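Training component of the fellowship. As part of building independent skills, the fellow (R.M.) carried out the full modelling exercise for a liganded target. The chosen ligand was coproporphyrinogen I. The inputs are recorded below so that the supervisory panel can assess the work.
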Amino acid sequence: MPSLPDGTGLPSTHPLVDGRTATSPLIDAYRARTPRRRPVWFMRQAGRSLPEYRESRAGTAMLEACLTPPLAAEITLQPVRRHDVDAGIFFSDIVVPLKLAGVDVRIEPGVGPVFGTAHRTAAEVDRLVTEHPAESLDEDALAPITEAVRLTVAELGSTPLIGFAGAPFTLAAYLVEGRPSRDHLAARALMHGDPQTWARLTAWAADVAGRFLRAQVLAGASAVQLFDSWAGSLSLDNYLRSVAPASHRTLSHVADLGVPRVHFGTGTGELLAAMRDVGADVVGVDDRIALDEAVRRLDGRVPVQGNIDPALLAAPWPVLEAHVRDVVARGAVAPGHVVNLGHGVPPTTDPDVLTRVVSLIHSIED
Ligand code: 1CP
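Fellow's submitted model of the complex:
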């Protein structure tokens, strides 16, 4: 799936088309062009590490916050204002499109997504996909997302907004189990035990996630990231057979729009090329593999994003600084490098450390 020129298929008022973000450092690096400064943003940069986030969120449940456009916009903007990062990541959650499709799900503080019911049998999956067809995620249903993205993009100016969705496997890992799990055993059992039901579930999740991504892009997001956070629990064979087709289907929903598509998961050292081949323009790399080795496994063909070890945010500054410089040096062998963490910002992180990391990254000469 070769990527289209920037902005193909987007409205003329979109930031990638009207010039606001087309030559931003983030988009230049995602497109393997030389950026005017080295771009950096952090997964989970909005959220619990920031006192202003805790204040904004006080008394509001997570999903309610995601579906209140001015609040979602404000929370998205907070880390951009504070840290001078090169992108905003839309404040939402991978289960938001499920909620908008009418699925019974809530986010429990300290736990994560919890469903009213698990979806482990053919009958349970059948009920899910028939009662909540992906097409029900129409313009009306997605209005809170579209509105929040519009409000955010209007404030961001020349800083691009990244839209995101959960990939079908990661969504299924929650849907089948009904809640967060360590090894995603129930999802993997369904994948092998009833491949037809598995295909039905992941095709449905692919369309739900795809519609969520498309709405964010059309409303003004300049790039997208597909999070397959738990894909690293699969072998390459299983990934290719049972997961890659659905991930490809999700990314196809935005293939005609000409925005860079980033694909990220954790523990995916063995899967990097396969994750690129589902239609990614950029591959996100976690901290369990050296970035130059990841680039080698990707044949140097695509820009990469990553991969500072989040644990080191709590290490003494000289240790963290040396690590950041090492990541930047290893990333230099890629056709493009957007600096990020290997996974999300830990909630206990001192926000001033993140600001200092950003300024260090911006100061490093080639
Ligand atoms: O009450 C709270 O503050 C809830 C904590 C929280 C937050 C701030 C959750 C619950 N989700 C989010 C926001 C969120 N989630 C964002 C936007 C913020 C940002 O990045 O700056 C994004 C991109 C996500 C994506 C997300 N949600 C992923 C993929 C990325 C990743 O971290 O791997 C996943 C797996 C989820 C599920 C989820 N939602 C929330 C939690 C605690 C979890 C993980 C649960 C588990 O351990 O399985």
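The panel noted the following from the submitted structure. The chain is about 45% helix and 10% strand. The mean pLDDT is 97.
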